[in-house]
Specification:
By secondary structure, the protein is of the alpha/beta class. It has helices at about 15-20, 35-50, 60-65, 70-75, 90-100, 100-105, 105-120, 145-150, 160-165; strands spanning about 10, 25, 25-30, 55, 80-85, 125, 155. It is built from nine helices and seven strands. β6, α8 (about 145-150) and β7 (about 155) form a beta-alpha-beta unit.
Length: about 170
Amino acid sequence: MAQASLISKYLIDASSIFDFWLVTSGVTRPYHIKVLKFRAIWDHICSLIDNGTILVPETVSEEIVIADPELLKWVESHKKSLVSSDPFQSELKQILNSFPSYALKRVNKLNDARIISIAMGMGLTVITSEHKNFGTLSQLNPKLPNVCDKFNVKWTNLPEFFATEGL
């Protein structure tokens, strides 16, 4: 697994990657790479991944099982640069103690906890397309941005990331 460089700033969630690639129920996600401008943004994100500014958690490869063949090829070509949550077990334990449903739910929910644990341990900002719940923090279905807030982990959505990076 990849070691983070000193320039690492972000950790990207699968939801943000999916927003460039997937068509769900006949609906194209917001930044689909078939749109030339969005392909250029995706290519820029890839360059930030390649230079270590954005890290990709290895859990992303678990979530990308039925996807665009080009995306599957991209994940396969980046397997050596994926970041493991293994070194961040104490952070993961804190999250699971606060949100035990993460361990009982679908794989992508446990992956959310793993992503937050990596960001927590490395001081990274999570890039996610998941929406924050402005009501009560759900113990049964916690949203990634809300859990990040609870553990003082910075997070951003794609439009905010685009603005920050001047895209």
